[in-house]
Amino acid sequence: MNSAPTTWRIARLVAAKDLRVEWHSRIATNQVLPFAAVTMVIFAFALDSDAVLQRVAPGLVWLATLFSVLVLVQRAFAVEAEDGALEATRVAGVDPRAIYLGKALALGLQLFVLEIVLLVAAVVLYAQSVPLEGALLLTATLISATCGLAAVGILYGGLTAGQSGRETLLPLLTLPAVAPVLIGATRATEAARGTAGAVVSDGWPWLGLLAVFAVAFGVGGALAFGPLIDE
Amino acid sequence: MDTESRSPVVRLDDAVAVLGGFPALAGASIEIDHGEILLLRGPNGAGKTTLLRLCAGLVPLARGAGEVLGHDLSTERESIRQRVGLLGHHNGLYLDLTVGENVRFWGSTVGADDREIAGAIERMGVGDRLVDVTVRRLSAGQRRRTALACLVARRAELWLLDEPHAGLDATARDDIDAILRAAARAGATVVVASHELERAGALATRTVDVVAGQINPAAGEATP
Amino acid sequence: MTSTDSALAATPASPDESSRHGTGTKATRVLGVATIVSMGWLLVFGLGFSPADRDQEEAVRILYVHVPTIWVAYLGFAVTALCSGIYLFGKKKSLQLDRIAGASAEIAVAFVAVTLAVGAMWGRITWGVYWQWDARLTTTALLFVTYIGYLAVRRLGGSHEQRAKRSAVIGLIAVLEVPLVHWSVRLWRSLHQEATVLNPDDGVQIDGLMLFSLFVGVIAFTLLYAWLLLHRSRGMWMEDVLDDRGLDDALAARRAEAGGRPSPEPAGETS
User: Which of B71, B86, B190, C198 has CB 3.0 to 4.6 Å from B37, enough for a Cys bridge?
Assistant: First the structure.
């Protein structure tokens, strides 16, 4: 018998599998991306003022991201539940930490692409622009916020997968938990693009918050995932 | 019959398992030896599925004692799972992935190499034309064979199959039988829950009745 | 999960006692009387003896409920976290710990609801608005929702052990979550505007009698919490016992069903 693969190797396998499922099914590409884009458009209908839109654009980008996280997490576990695959991974004794990290990685990559699209949408629809000196802060913010969102999303997605009332329980658990990400990422994005007189240096404390959040939930989630999906 | 002096693959002693408050298993006792193909028969709701899931370490043992592959069912369920393959009403496949991608995923989680995975696909007859087809496009029988290929790739030592013949045509059923016999010859222990008594009975080396959550030696058969 | 029948092992008292008397015991009755007496004291001091505040006038009396309820709620959440931790990491998986954790969270959530409700009234009178996006208020609101989520997870179903393990994990994750929320909200408010809110229990020059009334409030609500906790955790215990007793009956019925010997399929089908 070959040596058993490491947790990290299985995590990569799980992530590759999730991305391959998306490659074949194109659900996130064909449904979630348009959903997020439509959200950006209807924000404009609700707020109905160019000045207001320009002021709150960073918040709207992250709000649209949050909604999309909920949809993507549902999808990530619908794939597992469709033919009893999540249960099969439990029977197969696949390390739950590896499942957690792998699924979070795949979700994170999809989210990252989605956020880029939303930022482009903000540039086009809400007349946003990012000065060069803010680009580094913005990139770092995108990465750490994405990690935090994916860590929380997969953790609660796994808990609610296969439970009755999962569609409603997932947002109830997720939204209060990711409130710091919404606040932090929005403020950091505002700092990066200089909304309302903010300067780039205002953003770094927020980046610290986002990074601590991502690490705390990443580690906590990896440890908690096994007990949560087990019976 | 297996005459090895090793401890039995499965030993249950007055095992009780509860599903949502209902005692699906109400004190089941049985020993299953290496290389057996055991048939569980009994009406719907007798507890056959729960018995298989208990042996797979999926359902907790509420009372009684049990051991699978030398591991205690109440404390070492994690260790059991890695060596057991369960094929229930679901196949545990990713419908948007191809046959090859599914088998490769399940095989690589235990560190199987490409040769082993290709061998598993070949043995279950889902190679050639089928290997690059997404599972969603397969027939029930082809899906079942893909799931069995995953069990082979995962190197399961104890195969637990819930109604493996259900919904399949005659050819597919013959294929499943051949696959199970080959698995038993290769050293796996097979437990089958089935309604298809003529078919599964011919396949099995031993038959027991599951009645109201308990296990009795099959009527008309000597207790081993 | 480790001890197979811990559900039964964790029920030391005899079931007869509980079935005769409900959830009351001598201890809860003494506690109950003490709670009523101290609530009476709180009424007398809070509404009668303590003076009106110079700035807040009569509205200050709301604080004798507002402040003690949130303090006791924090105590309740701490008890939940502690019991969850002991359950997860301790050797003996006692379901009693899980029930105390659950009961404590339920009571604490109710207390936070009271805090928020009377706080909004106080805010309307003192600040002219029901709500301020102040760090403390926002954190409290998120804390409230977080523990509503915890209570929802407790009701997901499954075996007692499953419920206990799952909710213990969520109980500990909440401990991870709350400081992060607090940190982010603090940073948010401090960067954007100085706290415009005067801190209610910051006590500029708090009157002795007012302080005493607050103290009576804390005692009264702590007693109320303890009294509710005993009753609710015993109630949860009885629900569990009822479940288990149902299992015994169901098991007996299931065994009797098989007692008539199996009715085998027609002979000849077995090989």
Answer: B190
Domain that holds residue A206: 7-229
Query: Taking the model in full, what pTM does it have?
Result: 0.86
* Cβ–Cβ contact C151 with A under 8 A: no
Q: What residue numbers bound the domain in which B28 lies?
A: 10-83+157-217
Closest by Cα among C137, C84, C81 to C112: C137
**CB contact C179 to A (< 8 Å):** no
Q: Is B81 close to A4, i.e. CB distance below 8 A?
A: no
User: What's the mean pLDDT in C154-161?
Assistant: 84
Q: What is the ipTM of this complex?
A: 0.90
Q: Which of C212, C230, C236 is nearest to C32 (CA)?
A: C230
Pick from A4, A21, A91: which is nearest to B94 by CB? A21
Q: Do A5 and B108 touch (CB under 8 A)?
A: yes
Tally of residues, chain A? 231
Closest residue, chain C, to A221 (C-alpha): C173
Between C165 and C49, the higher pLDDT residue: C165
Domains of chain C: 27-196+207-239 (1.20.120)
Dist. CA A75–CA A150, nearest whole Å: 13
Q: Are strands B63-68 and B10-19 parallel, antiparallel or unpaired?
A: antiparallel
Helix (H) or strand (E) holding B160: strand B158-162
Q: Is the pLDDT of residue B138 over 60?
A: yes
Q: Is A1 on the interface with B (CB under 8 A)?
A: yes
Among candidate residues B82, C173, B155, the one with its CA nearest the CA of residue A2: B155
Q: In what order do the strands lie in the sheet with B37-41?
A: B84-87, B158-162, B189-193, B37-41, B206-211, B214-217
Q: How far apart are CA C186 and CA C142, in angstroms?
A: 13
Flag whether residue A133 sits within 8 Å of chain B, measured between CB atoms.
no
Average pLDDT on C252-267 reads 60
The helix (H) or strand (E) run that includes residue A124 is: helix A96-125
- Whether A1 is in a domain gets the answer no
CATH of the domain at B209: 3.40.50.300
Chains within contact range of chain A (3+ C-beta pairs < 8 Å) = B, C
- Looking at the domain assignment, is residue B223 inside a domain? no
Yes or no, beta carbons of A163 and C157 under 8 Å apart: yes
The SS3 assignment for C155 reads: coil
- Residue C22, pLDDT > 50, answer yes
Angle (deg, nearest 10), helices A166-193 and A50-81? 140
| Chain B hits for A94, Cβ within 8 Å | 109
